[in-house]
Each structure stands twice: as C-alpha cells, then as structure tokens.
Amino acid sequence: MISKQLPSSGKIRLWPFILLAVVILIGGIGYYFYNNYLAGFQWKPALQKKLKELVLKTSDSLYHIEYSDFDLNISSGNATLTDFRLIPDTAVYNKLVALHKAPDNVFTLSVKKLSIKNIGARKAYHDKILDIENISIENPTLTIVDKRFKYNDTVKVGKPKTPYQIIKKVFKQLRIDSISLKSISLNYIDENKAVTKHIALKHLDINISDVFIDSLSATDPARFYYTKGIDVTVHDYHIATPDSLYDATIKKIFFSTAQRKIALDKISLKPRYTRDNFYTKAGRTGEIYTLKFKQIAIDDIDLQDFLRAQVLYAGTMNINNADIQLYANNAYKGKKTPKIGHDPQQALQGVALDMRLKRLNIKNSRISYAETDAVTKATGEILFTHTNGYFLNVTNDDDQKKRNPYMRAYINTRFMDEAPFRVNFKFNLASTDGAFNYSGELGKFDGRILDKLVKPLAMVHVQSADVEKLDFNVDASNYNARGNLQFYYKNLKIQLLKKVSGKTGLQKLGLISTLANNLIIQRSNPDKNGVLSPGPIDLKRDPDVSFFSFLYKALLDGLKPSVGYDKKTETQVNTAIVKVSKLVTSFEKFKEARKERREERKKQRQAKKDSINKAQESKGN
Predict the structure, then answer these.
(1) Of 440, 459, 488, which residue constitutes the final position of a domain?
(2) Which stretch, 228-242, 288-302, 368-382, 508-522, has highest mean pLDDT?
(3) Given this model, what pLDDT does residue 465 score?
C-alpha cells in the first residue's frame, strides 16, 4: 500500500561514497607520512591541498571538500577528521548538464566526526599495504538529488572504476576490520516530475565488517561488495501512505548481508481518521485496514539479485503476532469500489517488486472482519484467534508461475475464539478470473456465538444450536462460488428479525419465527432418521463485495439449505413476512382507530353529562 520508495540500489549506493571518504583520508595519511619523514613537519597545509586535489580529480571537479581539523596520533595510529563536508559545485554541474555529461544523482555529504583507529602507517608507507582496525563515522548527513537525463540511458559512458582501480596507484591492498556509521540522516529529493518529492530517513546505523580490497577480492564469492558483512538498522521509521489515509510506523528495520536477512519489528498501519471521516475523506467505499505485526522477517535472501535487479527471491518469510482488523461499511452511500481483480492473490501479481518466496509462515495471529449492514445499520463481526499456518510458492515471478502456477495456504485458527477451524486455500496465480479453491472443517461449538455475525447481517437470532462440525469445499473466482457444505448440528432454534422504520434495533417476528421453527427449520442435521441435508453453494458474486465478505457469504449460501431454509423457502418466508407485516400494520391501525372512537364516545358522554348538570344548576337558581 505504501508506494513511496527510495531509488533502486542500481542507481544510488552509499558504499562508493563511504569508500571515497576513506580513500581521501588514506591518501592524506599516506601523503602526510611521506612529507613528515622526508620533508619535515609542515604537513597540514600540504595535506589540505592534496585532499582537495584528489577529490577534484576523482569527481571531474564536480565536488570539493571542507573540514575543520585533522588530528593524528603517531604513537597510537589513531586519526580524527572533524566537520567533514563533500559539496557539489553547481556551476560545474550546470556545465556538465549543457555538455550532456551530468550524472543522474548529485550528493551533499557532511560528517560531524570521522575517527580511524590503529592505522598501520609504516606498513602502508613501505609495503603499500594499508591495515585499519576501525573507522567510525558519527552523524553523517547525505542529501541525494535525483534528476535523470535521457542521455545517461543511451550514451556509452563505460564501466565505472572498481575500488581497486581507485586505490591501486597508492596501495596494492587495503583491509579495514570494521566500519561503523552512527545516526545517519538521508534526504532524497526526486526532481523527475513536475512536483518535487522529498523523502527523509533518519536514525540509520550501518556496520560493515572485514573490508578487503586487492586485485582479486572483487571475484571472491565469500564476500559481498568486498565485505564479509553489512548490517543496516533503521530506527523509528514513519511514513504516510500516498493517499494520506494511513500512517505507517516501524520501530526497527534490520538488514544483514551476512545473515541474508531482513527483519522489521513492531510494524503498524493505522487509519488517520475515524471510520465515518475516513469514508468522507476517501470518497469511496471499501475496507478500512488496521494492521499490527510484532515482527516480519525474511530469511535466505538472494542479495545479488535483490540489489542488482531489484527482485526479492528468498526462502522464508515469518509473520509473528499479527493483529489484522478489516472493516467495511455497506451503509455508506458514496462511490462504490469494484473488487473484481483485487483479491489477495491478484494484488500480489500487481506488486512492482518481483517476488518469489518458497514459504510464508504465520504465527499466533488475530484476524477480524467487521461489516456494517446497509439495511440494519448494525455491525457484524467474524473473528479468528490463535491463527497459525503457512503459504507455499508466494510469487508474482512469471518464470516461477510457469513452473508452478499454484499458491497454497494451510491455516489453523479458532473461530470466534471458540471453535477449532482448519481452512486450506489453492490459488491459481495464472488464472485470468482469479480462480481459487477453499476447503476446511469447523469443529464443535455453541451456535449462539454466531449471533455476532448473523443477527446484524442476516437478521436472524440464534436461540440455541449445538454445532458438531461443518465441512465445506468451494471453487470460486471473481464472479461466482460453487461447492458443497455439510452442517452437522442439534437443537437448532432461531428468532427471525426485521428492521422497522422509526424504531431502534431489530424487531422480533414472533409468529413467523414460531412457524419457521415448527414447520420449516430442521431441528437437527442429520434428522432422526439419519438423513443429512446437504448445503449446495451456488452464489453469484456482487462486484462490490470484498474477498473476505465473499468467503463467508458463499458459506452462508450453503448453510441455509442445510437447515431447511433454501432459496424457495426463503422467498416464501419473506412473502409471509410481508403479508404478516401488512396484517400487523392493519391490526395496529384498527386498534388505533378503535381507540380514537372510544375516546370520541367518552368525550361525547362527558359533554352530555356536563350539559345535564348545567341545566339542573340553572333550574335550581
């Protein structure tokens, strides 16, 4: 749902600029030692000049650097660079634009403090091999301006220099045990459209382990971009969705190349408005989502494909302790939002990032779906707790769908927090009409818990029902659902209800309910002779009905005939309700008219009595 993304790693990488800063500093140190031992102690002015020359030469004069101080402790081999800034030259940039040589991205980098620990200076000077124990960069701020030029897509600019090609004139080998960047602030400015977009990312930490650069390290399969591992942590990430209807927050994002893992902790997606105001702001119908996840983790990621081709090929995704709440208001009179083509498996196919997950696990989660009925104006809810299960072959990758077009799901949960419920899904990812199958079994429970769902949405009050089990198997698509349902129960008794204009709540249909319980509704299934009434399902889908609403309405379509309330009987009952309602209305009108006549006669008798009393009083006088 969140469409704002940082630019792809193929366009922008932090690593070359980290390396550039390191190389600049290394070059300065090497130059310093050369001048310190051979040319005296006038090293700072020479160092500043050398550093500036190096940056200008490396960037074709596009960038220059500034810093307030550079300190070096010869005995410990520690160095500190303070208030370092990498600044683009706008005049040079404009010239490059005119010459069709400007890059797509321009950077501004500032670092409060850069510390280097335990530099192997003598070895660097004598053997051209530089070993560094640690580089620590505090509070770096990187601003990226992204403005793409067509000539960069068509002009052959040649291969960029490798890190080894950059350092080989100074060193033949470079090793850094660790690099840590703390509290990074990243500002991304997209100038590719009429309206400039800004994205800010703060509280970002990066830890890089065992950097090794020489003539062969680029081909080392055990290394990832010359490192043994890169860990990235983002703290307290917050963003509004593009439609401004939701706020998304993530407490922590962790990415590790060594572990081949991405983990997101304490994820939340919340609507920014109340339910009533949400529909007014959106101007349309549809579900309102409230989502919480304790953790979402993706393991065994193919990092090379992820960074080079922006595709997510991974082994397992784990979703832990999710709380998923969906709400729909069918009473809202605004613009309808068609749901055809937007079922979960179809939404997956529309994700911009190519994805291939072998397995998706769901652990200890809660799922609720609430719906306000257009007639009753009441809200029904269906609840699933202690939800565990897994999906197989979660993909939108065309090649993978050719090999296996089916995504399967196996779910175990607690229906209404009361009954064990097992449901399996089989989604045809290659189907043009969203074909899928769902089947399962609902275990033993007290049927009165169904009131939370059927009373507001079907105007039926369950007075008693001992449910043994419910089996179902349904083939469905964007347009219909067909299948079978078997409902085993005892002691079923219901109360039919109706909505009466001008009255709050639902009104009981006593006479009709009595007739229904005695003449229509099957008290038990199987009956006393052991005959089971089947529950055939044949439901045409309303294009405005959501996926979850469609699932339970299809089951309700099979539930009715299994209790003796098939379509023919339902029509007869509805006709009877109308007739009885008319009789009741006529009777109520008769009683009201009779009451008015009685009042009128009472008034007339009182008027006559008053007249007699008045006449007698006149004679007495």
Answers:
(1) 488
(2) 288-302
(3) 92
Crossing angle of helices 451-458 and 547-562, in 10° steps, is 90
pLDDT at 343: 93
Q: What is the mean pLDDT of residues 359-368?
A: 97
pLDDT at 294: 96
Average pLDDT (517-541) is 88
* Residues 25-71 pLDDT 10s: 555 555 444 444 444 445 556 656 666 777 777 677 888 888 888 77
Decide if 347 is inside a domain: yes
Would you say 287 and 266 are in contact if contact means Cβ atoms under 8 Å apart?
no
Quick one: pLDDT at residue 224? Answer: 84
The H or E element spanning position 106 is strand 105-119
Whether the CB-CB separation of 177 and 208 falls below 8 Å is answered with: no
If asked whether residues 384 and 338 sit together in one domain, one would say: yes
Helix H or strand E encompassing 440: strand 436-442
Residue 459 to residue 497: CA distance in whole angstroms: 5
CA-CA distances (angstroms) from residue 577 to 341, 460, 499, 560? 38, 13, 12, 17
Residue 548 lies in a domain: no
Residue at 582 is within a domain: no
73 and 161 in a single domain? The answer is yes
Task: Note down the domain range covering 53.
Answer: 1-240
What six digits make up the tokens of 132?
Answer: 């560094």
pLDDT at 5: 42
Check pLDDT > 60 for residue 300: yes
- Report the mean per-residue pLDDT for the chain: 83
More confident residue, 578 or 218: 218
Average the pLDDT over 285-294 and give the result.
92
> How many domains are there within the chain?
2
Measured in whole angstroms, how far is the alpha carbon of residue 305 from the centre of its chain?
23
How crowded is the C-beta side of 432, counted as CA atoms within 13 Å?
Answer: 0
Count CB-CB contacts under 10 A for residue 221: 5
Residues whose CB falls within 8 Å of the CB of residue 5, separated by 6 or more in sequence, listed in order: none
- Same domain? For 229 and 260 the reply is no
Token code pair at residue 74:
């010869």
| Residue 154 sits in the same domain as residue 17 | yes
Helix (H) or strand (E) holding 463, with range, is: strand 460-476
Pairing of the two strands 354-372 and 311-329: parallel
Residue 85 near residue 68 (C-beta atoms within 8 A):
no
Count the neighbouring beta carbons within 10 Å of the beta carbon of residue 46. Answer: 16
d(C-alpha 362, C-alpha 344), whole Å: 16
What is the C-alpha to C-alpha distance for residues 544 and 553, in angstroms, rounded to an integer? 13
End position of a domain, from candidates 442, 470, 488: 488
Task: Answer yes or no: do 187 and 253 share one domain.
Answer: no
Do 316 and 336 share a domain, yes or no? yes
- 190 and 288 together in one domain: no
Residue pair 84/21 in contact (Cβ under 8 Å)? The answer is: yes
- Residue 3: its pLDDT value, please? 38
Task: Give the single-character DSSP code of 244.
Answer: S
- Cite the beta strand spans of 120-245 per DSSP E: 129-138, 141-146, 173-190, 197-213, 229-240
Higher pLDDT, 414 or 604: 414
pLDDT at 39: 42
- For 337-393, the DSSP string reads ---TT-SHHHHHHT-SSEEEEEEEEEEEEEEEEEEE-TTT--EEEEEEEEEEEEEEE
First to last CA, the chain: 95
Angle between helical axes of 547-562 and 567-620 (0-180°, round to 10)? 80
Q: Are residues 95 and 185 in the same domain?
A: yes
Provide the 8-state DSSP code for 79. E
Domain contains 302: yes
Distance between CA 496 and CA 574 in Å, rounded?
10
